[in-house]
Amino acid sequence: MLGVMINRSLLVMAASLALLVGCEEKVTADSYKSINTGMSQSEVETMLGGSGEELDVGGVSIGADGLMSGSKGGGKDKTYVWKSKDGGEISVTFRDGKVINKGKSGI
Known about the structure:
Number of strands: 6
Largest sheet: 4 strands, antiparallel
Oligomer: single chain
């Protein structure tokens, strides 16, 4: 009987620990520092805890003819943002599935 109680206690402690680890904040200064140019999008998603929110980043450029042209969602670059529970953010820009730029706010 005592062995069953100890096994149940260990099971409850293990489940509690798993929940705590699963709730660990992933959008941190340390995770930001770990993101490097050339990393794959899946590596970043694993590090930051899933898919980020895709930002619709349009751009405007001035061509050689002096005329302004814009793009909205048509470029190869995609920027995603991950948010922490306390309002911090990490944004990462990918080109062809690889990190080309990153930024942070509030972390």
